[in-house]
Amino acid sequence: MIQKDIARFFLCLIIAILLCRTVPPAVAAETTSPPAAADRNDAYADFLNEAEEETAVQVADPLYYWNKAMFHVNDKLYFWVLKPVATGYKAVVPGLARTGVRNFFHNLATPVRFVNSLLQGKSEQAGVELGRFMVNTTMGVLGFGDPAQKEPDLKRPPAEDLGQTLGLYGLGNGCYLVWPVLGPSTLRDSVGMFGDQYLSPLSSVNEDTVRFGATGLKIVNALSFRLGEYETLKEAALEPYESLRNAFIQNRAKQIRE
């Protein structure tokens, strides 16, 4: 199964690279001045404005038509499937249980953050990740609890991933990509996402039903805490696709700088 996943990923990656190389990068990040924030009167509008005002980081978008099509696919997927499911899930699962599920998946992803912290030379942060994992797995009952957060020296550090590591090493974004279901990314971050999968314990589960079920639960549970955010962000943007693309690129650049 892993071999099939690898083959599918590299096939998509090769197609993306070929398209990036053959299609002129005619569309790049917007550099025009945004409308005044006062007109939008919204925190999300301020966030989008800040992203649009940043002209230093740009990304090529040669796959504009593919990306915009996938943006609309994901938009429909959110409103038609994910939002109703997450709303129903939130209605029947108590907040304390949902927080426990969120803590469990965060604890499970410790190897990804630990290794990338080391690769970025953040040994102290890696030590915090390891300490949090040991405390939460034992005292927190497999990570459903987060007693480590109560310890001053074990506060949750910023999450690190391979895309950030590659960016820190000087690798550029490559072209912008929007994946079905997974959402916005770049060529560099797509490679990083694939590498991070090898460090995730979920990838070692051979049973497809268990692996996909756990992934689905993780997505729906996380969304249950953020219902309404996407709608607000979308309504605040004059051009949702372009604004979200620029916001994503700026956010990733900020994560790499930090």
TrEMBL record:
Protein name (Swiss-Prot/TrEMBL): VacJ family lipoprotein
Signal peptide: 1-28
Similarity section: Belongs to the MlaA family.
Any single Gene Ontology cellular-component annotation: membrane
InterPro entries, alphabetized: MlaA
Sorted UniProt keywords: Lipoprotein, Signal
Keyword Magnesium: no
Pfam families on file: MlaA (PF04333)
UniProt GO BP: intermembrane phospholipid transfer
PANTHER family in the cross-refs: INTERMEMBRANE PHOSPHOLIPID TRANSPORT SYSTEM LIPOPROTEIN MLAA, LIPOPROTEIN VACJ-RELATED
Naturally occurring in which organism (per UniProt): Desulfonema ishimotonii
Domain of life (superkingdom): Bacteria
Keyword Lipoprotein listed: yes
